Amino acid sequence: xxKKQLLYAFILLSSSAFIQAQDLGELSFETKSISLxxxxxNKDTLATYRFENTGNREVEIKHITITGDCKIxxxxxxxxxxxxxxxxVVKYDTSIAGPIRKTISIHSDASQPNVALKLTGKVLPKN
Length: 127
Known about the structure:
This protein has one helix spanning 2-22, and strands at 27-29, 33-39, 45-53, 61-66, 70-74, 85-92, 98-108, 114-123. With 127 residues, the protein is α+β, with helices and mostly antiparallel strands.
């Protein structure tokens, strides 16, 4: 009898969590990885990550973490409504020659709260 009660409780909690997960917003990115290719030294370079909220609730981007040689040029400042499209734009500092391997971490209240975007390429040496 006790095992049945535990089983019913488990099923109820699992169903509740599943239903709540379906009721969240979801950020669907066109691509999570951008290659800038070979970039001339000191040339302004932007990478644009486009996405859409394909979920049932609005999504708020809490914060974006990005490493040293990149700067966020644009990010949504208000919640992204279901069906709404938006973008995140980053600028890479091309004043240093060499390979580019960066991760941009998006933290939100979406069904997948942490998303890692990749940025790769190579800054050519100064002529």
